């Protein structure tokens, strides 16, 4: 007598249900991964923007307080820093600010120049205000130095 033994296995319908559930779970995982990647890209862009602004502000603070002579040339759109041992120039261009070998890729623009509390358009300065207007957000950098007696001499 020949005995037929049934092999335990899944039916085609059961395999189709498992395959469908797997496709749904993998689709959800990829959707969530895409959302997380877009969120991380936004956070990274915001961090880079803030970092660039902070580096620019720090460099301006150091230079304003390290050099005796600070002057703005409106024609060349440059800020010249000088003292008896060395000098430094900032070049303001659309979308970037160049300082020696540093380049700040930023949308900050010059908003005001000051000397002794008065707004000036060029020449000697002791304070500078930069502004970045994007959408509904306005960021400002204001950097100044304390004047000495030599700042008021010719």
Using the CA coordinates, give the radius of gyration.
Answer: 31 Å
Mean pLDDT: 88
How far apart are the first and last residues' alpha carbons, in Å? 122 Å
SSE pattern, N- to C-terminal: HEEEEEEEEEE
Helix content: 25-40%
Q: How is the largest sheet built, in terms of strand order?
A: 5-4-3-2-1-8
Number of domains: 1
Major beta sheet summary? 6 strands, antiparallel
Low-confidence stretches: none
The coarse silhouette is rod-shaped
Q: Helical segment tally? A: 1
The total strand number stands at 10
What is the structural class?
alpha+beta
Beta-strand fraction estimate: 25-35%
Which features characterize this protein?
rod-shaped; single chain; four-stranded antiparallel sheet; 1 helix; 154 residues; alpha+beta; six-stranded antiparallel sheet
Task: Give structural notes.
The protein has about 150 residues and is α+β, with helices and mostly antiparallel strands. Helices cover about 35% and strands about 35% of the residues. The protein has one helix and ten strands; from the N terminus they run αββββββββββ.
Concise synopsis of the structure shown:
By secondary structure, the protein is of the alpha+beta class.
Sequence-ordered SSE layout with sheet pairings:
Layout: H1 12-66, E1 69-73, E2 78-82, E3 87-93, E4 96-99, E5 102-105, E6 109-115, E7 118-120, E8 123-124, E9 127-134, E10 137-144
Antiparallel strand pairs: 1-2, 1-8, 2-3, 3-4, 4-5, 6-7, 6-9, 9-10
